[in-house]
Structure formats: structure tokens, C-alpha cells
Amino acid sequence: MSNNLIGTLEISRQLKISRNQVSYRCRKLGFGNKNGTPILLDEDQFLMVKDYNSNNLKNRSVRDKYDKRNILIVEYFISMRNNSIPEIANTLGIKESSVHSAINQFLKDGCVTVKSKLCI
After folding, report:
1. Do both 48 and 10 map to the same domain?
2. End-to-end Cα separation, the chain, in angstroms
3. Which residues contact 6 (CB under 8 A, 6 or more apart)?
4. Which uninterrupted H or E stretch holds 113?
5. At what angle do helices 96-109 and 69-79 cross, to 10 degrees?
6. What pLDDT score does 2 carry?
């Protein structure tokens, strides 16, 4: 695991909001998990939780299109025999709708595009 991951308790302290609010924002942004394991976020996810605004969720499809998890989804889709959407979602612990979107985007574009921190 990366050293750059931060838990909900620390996020709560930094943002001066309750852990419940942090968990709520994580769930709404698609970072929450149903199995009760602790939620650990990277820097990009932390910024999304920090800047969370329920009115901006309509722009979520743009974020989903460039989600770095799409690489993992497509890699699994191409390389494994059992590559149905429910199977991939279950194996990777990702929502079926996210898997469906990533695969459809890959089949449409023929490639996977992700957000980069590189500046030109």
C-alpha cells in the first residue's frame, strides 16, 4: 500500500468536519465500500472530498471517463476469460455501473484515457 493514502479520521481532522460527513462524501463520490473496511484515499480523491458539492455531481461522468481505475478494468476485461461485467465488478470491488462505463468507453474509443498530473 502506498504511503500517500489517508484515512477518514485524518480527513475529518484536516477538513474540520465529522467522520460521518467524510464517509457520506466518499460514498456519494463512489469511494465508499459496502463491506465496512476502512476507506483510504489518495491525494486526488482527498481533493474531491474536500471540494465536494452535491450540485456538482452531474459533472461526475467526466471524472469517471478519466478515472485511473479504468486501466485496471480494461486490463482485466482483455486478459481474463471470466470477463463479464458482474464478475469484473465483484473481483475488483468496483460498482458494475463503473465497470460498464469503462468497458463501453474502451470499446468506443479503442483506448483508455486517464487524468494526468503532468503539465506542459
Report:
1. yes
2. 29
3. 40, 41, 42, 46
4. none
5. 80
6. 46
Residues 35 and 70 in one domain: no
Q: Which three cell numbers stand for residue 88?
A: 469484473
Q: Residue 30 has what DSSP assignment?
A: T
Query: Does 1 map to a domain?
Result: no
Mean pLDDT over each residue of the chain, to the nearest integer: 80
With a cut of 60, say whether residue 63 has pLDDT above it. Answer: no
Residue 104 sits in which domain range? 64-109
Cα gap 78→81, rounded to integer Å: 8
Which neighbouring-strand residues pair with 41?
6
> Across residues 78-89, what is the average pLDDT?
86
Residue 74 maps to a domain:
yes
Q: pTM of the predicted model, to two decimals?
A: 0.46
How many residues comprise the chain? Answer: 120
- pLDDT tens-digit readout, 5-42: 888 889 999 999 998 888 888 888 877 766 667 788 88
How many Å is the maximal CA-CA distance in the chain?
Answer: 46
